[in-house]
Model the fold of this input.
Amino acid sequence: MVSEFNKCLDELENLLEESWTLPLASNKYIVNGNQLRSIIESLRNSLPQELKKAKEVLDAKDKTAARAKEEADIIVERAKKNSELMLSKAKKASEQILENARAEAETLISEQQITTIANERAEQLVEQAKQDAIKMRNVTITYIDGVINESEKSLGTALSTLTQLKQSYSGSKTEQ
Done:
């Protein structure tokens, strides 16, 4: 769709092409003054509409950017809460396992052989608790990475949309 502004520019070009040059002055033209005034008036009338369209495009870009930032902030906040919750659960679980290991070790301390077995068992439980804590930490980190990647994708999509809007605006601006 050709804008009113571009249509007026085309009319100006046509007017210039249809005009006559002055003898001995190839860069001076004789044009129809009434037609020229009419085209200039149309240009004046179309400029506010073109500026309004440009403002609407910029407003849409700003709204899209604000919405993308809000979504990213929400995703990051959820990720923080979920990671804190998972870390808290992992810490409680490891503390419970350690507490159980200590309680079991205390009940087995009656003889040296039992003490040796209890120490080995406690070490196994502690090692298992450490491994469980590491696994839970890795799961939490993987989850956070996923959330961050999703945030990056959302921001990338928003940026792509903004770039397309900007290019669309720039394209329509250069056509003018």
About this structure: The radius of gyration is 37 Å. Residues 4-175 form one domain. The mean pLDDT is 83.
